[in-house]
Protein: Isochorismate synthase entC
Amino acid sequence: MAACLSLAARDLLERPPRLTFTTTELTGAPWAAPGPPLSLLAGRDDVVAWVRHGQGLVGWDPVLRIEATGPGRIEELRAAWRAVVHASWWSDPLVRPGTGPVALGAITFSPSSSERSVLLVPGVLVGRDARGSWVTTVRARGQDPDGGLDLRALTAAAAASRGVPQAPGARVTPGARSEASWRAAVAQASARLRAGEADKVVLARDVTAVPRATGTTGDLLGRLAAAYPSCWTFAADGMVGATPELLVRLRDRRLSSRVLAGTARRRRAGGDQPADEPSALAAWLEADPKNNREHALARASALSSLEPLCSVVEAPERFVLTLPNVLHLASDISGVVAGDTGALALVGALHPTAAVCGTPTPAAARLIDELEGMDRGRYSGPVGWVDWHGEGEWCIALRAAQLAEGGRTGTGPQAPVRVLGGGGIMPSSDPADELAETAAKMRPVLDALGAP
Ligand SMILES: C=C(O[C@H]1C=CC=C(C(=O)O)[C@@H]1O)C(=O)O
Structure:
């Protein structure tokens, strides 16, 4: 395994590393059967992942880490990745989304976060789409090509797919603030919205989960993906989760985005109480004025950010997205991108959306700074991947957690895990109800850890 080169995006521009990427098609039984790619991460820490419905990308052994902070972080990462691609050689007989040079990244919500925004180039990246599987290996130019990946061993690992171990169980303790103090912040936010400071603000909170036994990031991801197959299960630099919200997908100049805002939580069966019936909850959600107003604001703000960048934008009627823990009002937006705008430039134009910040953006961001009382880190920031010609797929890091030490080897999910969740606050919000909503949004990660 080659050492990982860690560079600030700005410094990298002067002298980008010269990498060689080799994509090879993976054929044969294990690559066609259900199982890979996520099963390849079983037992591993320090991984990257982007998987939905059993397809996507999983990688390990990072060779390059590009870091940026501050208001220019997205643009700096974009420029640095472009410089890396320009300085690289690659061989890619497949030329499909996700083949050839690819970097995965996690970007902070706030420009003033003390955490770093990163793009990571894994030394081994296995991909799978509807047409088949492949692996891309990366080495620094001049590095011994024979020190590369043993394809037979990789295929044997894919064939020996083992089940995901049970969740270890975890103890949950308060994060930056207690539940009572978060409810007080929601009450203050609603009062300030009623006074006209903004239309909507999204407030989040965190809890700390301490697993009761050692586990690995790969196993945690396996449990998340099994429970939430329609969400994007992701991992980059220890930021992990299973998010339902697509910020932007850019493929062949066509853009897609899924805006979510407005939530009904599903209660499980308990005692003699039956579980909530999704169709009844959906009907309630579709008729609820507070949730509809919240969704309309998020949808309008996404459309106004995208319209200047696209030659065509389409946004059919909103619909209800049903997940195991919650239901959301959802709008799918599609468009054709004008000019040569890449995925990271679109991420920069869209972030922060009204689904994670509020509206109008500057007033909502100010309320978050004043009332939330914590650094969100990469939670509710963009997470995703970018390829050699700037296309890719980026979601919003929701239903997510930050593992300690970036999830690096030896610090897997036994070390404290910071789990975060938030909700759109409106003038009429009920603090207790908003708190329960954040708890429902934390369930994916807490269940994957086995927390009660
Ligand atoms: C901020 C979160 O969810 C956002 C996305 C969907 C619905 C939301 C809501 O109804 O409040 C939030 O805007 C979160 O999951 O932490």
